[in-house]
Design goal:
Blueprint (H helix, E strand, L loop, with lengths): L3 H18 L4 H23 L1 H17 L6 H4 L9 H7 L2 H10 L7 H12 L2 H8 L5 H14 L5 H10 L7 H16 L13 H16 L1 H11 L10 H16 L5 H15 L4 H19 L16
Helix pairs in contact: 1-2, 1-12, 1-14, 2-11, 2-12, 3-7, 9-11, 12-14, 13-14, 14-15, 14-16, 15-16
Length: about 325
């Protein structure tokens, strides 16, 4: 589920919070990191469960129209294409999906206002009209329609953002990532495949990477902050943005601790993260400091790279 980029972001957030509170207990920060990672998978199921919630509302509207005292012709013969969507039916018939959502309380029953507003937006869209008016409908068409909902309706939805922030402190920053995973999974189903069953981490060694990166960064935090200050002697330590210092510490830790990860990859990753979580000029600072310090550490043998971990290794 989680790729290395998201793991790095979560390590940064946990370490930054711990250092800011001046309470770095390795057992506690490890627990917090693993909880944060598991919440990304929970959000995946929560978001995916929007599709069945929309279907249920569509079915209610069809039944309400048919049950009127004097239903119109269009109400009596309302199209059931939406409620017959095969991708949504597959979700509803998947015991792992339904049991996970039920066990973890990942349903949308208490957010009926959001579901109604989302349904209204979907029904007013061009992709809905094209889907409902098409003469034929394949599994690929069903998948494309559901994918359009996740592509066009959710990432910039303010009400959804409010729900995520109120429900879990871990979810708001994971929204874009989980939506991308869902869209890729729907595309896989459209080609005749099955909905993937995700684990928290993409690869077996990613959990070890996450914990080792966090623990080693925490243990060496003061040492690497001192190294940072030595390389920017004209800067008052108080003026170094705490976020930037934290990113530099993790970048140096990664360069030292993981010999097969190319230096170029490490620097690029933390420069990119700084663009989202720090000041407008932080990426220049993080890039310059990491580049200079890591080069010196390679000269002294503190950083040793092997195989694809050589300095000019290709990014991934």
């Amino acid at each position: 589920m989680l790729n290395r980029r998201l793991i790095r972001i979560k390590v940064f957030k946990v370490l930054y919070a711990a250092e800011t509170s001046q309470s770095v207990d390795l057992s506690a920060v490890e627990k917090e990191l693993l909880l944060s990672c598991s919440k990304t998978l929970d959000l995946y199921y929560f978001l995916l469960n929007i599709a069945p919630a929309l279907k249920r509302l569509a079915l209610q509207k069809i039944e309400a129209g048919r049950n009127k005292f004097r239903p119109s012709e269009s109400e009596l013969n309302a199209s059931t294409r939406f409620v017959d969507n095969r991708f949504i039916a597959m979700l509803e018939e998947d015991p792992h999906f339904t049991e996970t959502c039920s066990k973890k309380g990942l349903g949308w029953e208490e957010y009926d206002v959001f579901i109604k507003q989302l349904y209204a937006s979907v029904v007013a869209s061009d992709y809905y009209r094209e889907y409902m008016e098409a003469p034929d409908c394949s599994l690929e068409d069903d998948c494309r329609f559901v994918s359009s909902i996740f592509e066009q309706e959710l990432e910039d939805n303010e009400m959804l953002w409010d729900i995520l922030e109120e429900t879990s402190v871990y979810w708001a920053d994971d929204l874009g990532y989980d939506l991308n995973v869902i869209i890729k999974d729907i595309a896989q189903v459209a080609k005749g495949g099955h909905l993937p069953r995700h684990n928290v981490f993409l690869k077996d060694d990613d959990r070890e990477f996450a914990i080792k990166l966090l623990d080693t960064s925490a243990v060496n935090y003061d040492k690497y902050v001192t190294r940072l200050q030595q390389h920017v002697p004209n800067w008052d330590p108080a003026r170094i943005v705490r976020v930037d210092a934290c990113l530099v510490v993790i970048g140096l830790t990664e360069a030292v601790t993981f010999p097969t990860i190319p230096v170029k990859v490490t620097i690029n990753e933390y420069v990119d993260i700084s663009k989202f979580y720090s000041t407008p000029n932080s990426h220049v600072f993080v890039n310059g400091v990491l580049d200079v310090i890591i080069k010196k550490m390679m000269e002294t043998g503190e950083v040793v790279k092997e195989g694809r971990g050589l300095y000019d290794g290709s990014t991934r």
